[in-house]
Write a structure and sequence with these properties.
Strand content: 25-35%
Number of strands: 20
Structural class: mainly beta
Number of helices: 1
Low-confidence stretches: 266-281
Distance between the termini: 13 Å
Mean pLDDT: 78
Helix content: under 10%
Strand order of the largest sheet: 12-17-13-14-15-16
Shape: globular
Radius of gyration: 21 Å
């Protein structure tokens, strides 16, 4: 098992992390649940008006947002995407339609799906391809050639990979500088799975990491402590799959024991059996 905690402080210190003056009051931008009805899902347009700034997952699998190609016909607009999994409509749409998440027909979304999204101002998508070299080309087109390997998170078919476990650092031919890297997903010492024969079965994507975040990755699920921890600004992955926020606990220091599988009652209120046996820690 690989456990991955991403903690966002919003600023270099906890004291400044929720400052409206500094523009870091961003609690509402993380771990939002899309509202669904009959396989149609909607997001909060008031916190995101862009068409390329949703870091969205479907049942834990990261999906790719694409700005759609728009064609206007008689009395309607026709939208089309080619490489993405979903899109949102722009100012041309009415006030109801702009809030809908429009999924590609190949995405297995249904009424029971769990859709979670973060809002990342400025966009997160760097590129998509069937090889690490081509993915790096997409990264350069998006951000110019000024990033290094650790500036990005890498995904195979929407599942997050980790250095040494699915992806590794490689140098472009003739490269001499840190930014001359490309992510290597091939079979080798980094436990990659991509070969020339199977590459068409996979889509590789890269997201530029958010600024002012701390990431802890390991094979054990020990609690994460630190002065930069801030409640409601965490993302938690298990084996590269994003976990819903009801699958883990964010606790203040001083709590040293948690038991599951026991019924509980609400003190001072009506009796209600609350089973914790389904909680995953």
């Amino acid at each position: 098992m690989i456990y991955d905690f991403v903690l966002s402080t919003g600023h270099f210190s906890v004291s400044g992390c929720s400052s409206e003056k500094l523009g870091t009051d961003t609690f509402k931008l993380f771990n939002n649940e899309a509202v669904g009805s009959f396989s149609r899902f909607y997001y909060d347009r008031s916190i995101s008006t862009g068409q390329k700034e949703l870091d969205l997952s479907l049942n834990g699998q990261s999906l790719l947002q694409e700005i759609p190609f728009l064609q206007e016909t008689l009395n309607e607009f026709v939208y089309q995407i080619y490489t993405g999994d979903f899109f949102t409509k722009g100012s041309e749409a009415n006030t109801f339609d702009v809030n809908e998440l429009n999924f590609d027909s190949s995405v297995p979304v249904n009424a029971e799906s769990e859709v979670i999204y973060d809002v990342i101002t400025g966009g997160i998508f760097a590129g998509t391809s069937d090889s690490g070299e081509n993915l790096k080309t997409g990264i350069n087109h998006q951000y110019l050639q000024n990033g290094i390997f650790t500036d990005y998170d890498y995904f195979i078919n929407g599942q997050k990979t980790y250095s040494g476990h699915g992806v590794g650092f490689a140098m472009m031919v003739g490269g001499t500088q840190p930014y001359d890297f490309y992510p290597n997903f091939g079979i080798g010492s980094d436990q990659g799975i991509i070969t020339e024969n199977n590459k068409d079965n996979f889509r590789l994507t890269a997201h530029r990491k958010r600024t002012k975040t701390a990431q802890f990755t390991g094979r054990y699920s020990e609690p994460v402590f630190g002065v930069d921890f801030l409640e409601k600004r965490t993302n938690f992955y298990v084996n590269g799959i994003l976990q819903p926020k009801n699958n883990y606990l964010e606790l203040y220091t001083g709590v040293n024991l948690i038991k599951t599988g026991f019924d509980a009652t609400v003190s001072g209120g009506f009796y209600e059996a609350l089973s914790g046996s389904s909680m995953q820690l």
